[in-house]
């Protein structure tokens, strides 16, 4: 049975994101969404129609954090590429005309032809367990630092 490999290439800008959808290496759709819940819900509708979608976007700082948080909230795996690495990898494709629409296409094409490793998404329970496991260590470290400073102060006072 031949499975369809569906890739969503997303170019994130400050106010909108361009989405390019490729199925088995062929572009089937592209559109723009707003970087808010309305736009993300439209994207989610397309993502839910596909089994195991591959999502790729560039890490654009504060602009891509909303998309990343949305994907994490829905426990969707994705590839968040360093923009310089993406530029280097798409440089071979004669990427001369730079538009947001083309950037989304090139990201989708990159994931289709040279799959990057998808990020592991933690469930809320796993995040909570990880956070709770760090609390005793941070308390222990604080207590150790406090006792070291206390001993140091005692020595300094003794020398006076």
Brief sketch in words of this structure:
The protein is α/β, with parallel strands linked by helices and 160 residues long. 51% of the residues lie in helices and 20% in strands. The protein has a 5-stranded mixed beta sheet with strand order 3-2-1-4-5.
Walkthrough of the structure:
- The protein has 160 residues and is an alpha/beta fold.
- The model has no long low-confidence stretch (mean pLDDT 81).
- The protein has a five-stranded mixed beta sheet.
- Strand 1 and strand 2 form a beta hairpin.
- The chain has five helices and five strands; from the N terminus they run E-E-E-H-E-H-E-H-H-H.
- The radius of gyration is 23 Å and the shape is elongated.
Count the DSSP helices: 5
**How would a crystallographer describe the biggest sheet?**
5 strands, mixed
Query: How far from one another are the termini?
Result: 83 Å
The helix content, as a percent range, equals 40-55%
Task: Name a few traits of the molecule.
160 residues; alpha/beta; five-stranded mixed sheet; 51% helix
SSE diagram, text form:
Elements: E1 6-12, E2 16-23, E3 26-34, H1 37-48, E4 54-58, H2 62-73, E5 79-81, H3 83-90, H4 100-113, H5 124-159
Parallel strand pairs: 1-4, 4-5
Antiparallel strand pairs: 1-2, 2-3
């Amino acid at each position: 049975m031949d499975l369809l490999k569906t890739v969503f290439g997303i170019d994130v800008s400050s106010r909108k994101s361009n989405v390019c959808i490729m199925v088995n290496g062929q572009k089937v759709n592209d559109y723009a969404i707003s970087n808010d819940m309305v736009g993300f819900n439209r994207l989610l509708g397309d993502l839910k129609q596909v089994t195991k979608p591959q999502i790729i976007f560039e890490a654009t700082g504060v602009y891509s954090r909303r998309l990343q948080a949305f994907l994490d909230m829905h426990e969707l795996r994705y590839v968040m590429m360093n923009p310089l690495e993406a530029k280097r990898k798409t440089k071979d494709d004669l990427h001369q005309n730079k538009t947001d629409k083309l950037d989304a296409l090139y990201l989708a094409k990159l994931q289709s032809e040279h799959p990057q490793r998808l990020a592991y998404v933690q469930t809320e329970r796993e995040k909570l367990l990880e956070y709770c496991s760090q609390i005793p260590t941070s308390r222990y470290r604080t207590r150790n630092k406090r006792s070291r400073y206390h001993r140091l102060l005692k020595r300094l006072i003794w020398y006076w």
